[in-house]
Amino acid sequence: MQQVKGVIARGKGAPVELVTVNVPDPGPGEAVVKIQACGVCHTDLHYREGGIGNDYPYLLGHEAAGIVEAVGPEVHDLAPGDYVILNWRAVCGACRACLRGRPWYCFATHNAKQKMTLEDGTELSPALGIGAFIDKTLVAAGQCTKVDPAARPAAAGLLGCGVMAGLGAALNTGNVGRGDSVAVIGCGGVGAAAIAGARLAGANRIIAVDLDDRKLANATELGATHTVNSSATDPITAIQELTGGFGADVVIDAVGRPETWKQAFYGRDLAGTVVLVGVPTPEMQLELPLLDVFGRGGSLKSSWYGDCLPSRDFPMLIDLYLQGRLPLDAFVSEEIGIDGVEAAFEKMHGGNVLRSVVVF
Ligand SMILES: NC(=O)c1ccc[n+]([C@@H]2O[C@H](COP(=O)([O-])OP(=O)(O)OC[C@H]3O[C@@H](n4cnc5c(N)ncnc54)[C@H](O)[C@@H]3O)[C@@H](O)[C@H]2O)c1
Ligand SMILES: [Zn+2]
Ligand SMILES: [Zn+2]
Prior knowledge:
This protein has about 350 residues and is α/β, with parallel strands linked by helices. Helices cover about 25% and strands about 25% of the residues. Strands 3, 5, 6, 9, 10, 17 and 18 form a 7-stranded mixed beta sheet that branches. A 6-stranded parallel beta sheet has the order 13-12-11-14-15-16, with helices on both faces. Strand 11, helix 5 (about 190-200) and strand 12 (about 205-210) form a beta-alpha-beta unit. Helix 4 (about 160-175) runs parallel beside helix 5, helix 5 (about 190-200) packs parallel to helix 6 and helix 7 packs parallel to helix 8. The chain is globular and about 65 Å long. The chain binds nicotinamide-adenine-dinucleotide and zinc ion (ZN) (2 copies).
């Protein structure tokens, strides 16, 4: 066991605290990872505000890269010194989804079995089974995905959640291909990554929709060919006008509200694909004519973690980053210290950052 500093949310809405955490030595199938960088994701804020559960105290942080410090028994494909991105989809290999060759739908993913605790023994709930605003964290070995160590940790770690969710919404769930038209509604970290993913896939028309002109300017840098400020312009009409009257082949809702999903549905060409990657809250309801759902054909999908398979996608995307084909650095708006998480939540509300990244 060792003692390190970590950032916890002790109760609903209370400011985060930097406290001493006991990290057990890795048991069977586990690893301790020295964190080098961890992005601040909207989901961390959801945890703090009680939007995800009531299992306080939460150990926040989950978009991280670092170096494996120690591994427990029965770990064969990971060793101290390995450079890894942490993932929240350590697939089991044995559930129905895994056995039929669709492990990105695995419903028995692994986390560490032992608990990290406060000094008084209180067990912590790590955000998304990771908990990485901490010097060292304990995870299941399968949560560590080895990538090329040439990739800067602040950029690489972002693949661990939001940027992967956006890239995968375009590449995996939306299956965007060469010559497709794509619209992305909401251009925060996730939506901006969906735009980068659409460009990587060869989409030739990429329409960014947001309420905030700063986000639209970012989106243009990442590959949007057109922008629509939906506080001033009806996005459905605008998307149709920009696609010869048809609507886009793939529309990605990276906000997750009934009105944005409807914009995606009606801004989509007949028989195209709607991808919901933004996360709705429990009270949200959707009402629309069932005949439109039938008559417009196509597919309506949701995208959890970009339908990614970390072992397949992380090393590949890091290679593209190192080749200059995926601008991960553009998502790092600022590097902050471990005491800067609360201020980073404030900036998230202000809307002027894609990602604040804690660097250790
Ligand atoms: N599916 C997944 O696996 C997954 C993973 C990570 C995050 N998410 C979710 O994705 C969503 C986006 O996350 P983020 O980190 O990019 O958040 P963010 O706060 O950085 O970005 C949200 C963007 O949406 C814009 N926006 C808000 N309301 C809008 C509206 N009505 N019309 C158009 N634009 C609007 C904002 O201006 C902002 O640019 C969140 O719901 C988050 O929880 C999903
Ligand atoms: Zn499985
Ligand atoms: Zn996240």
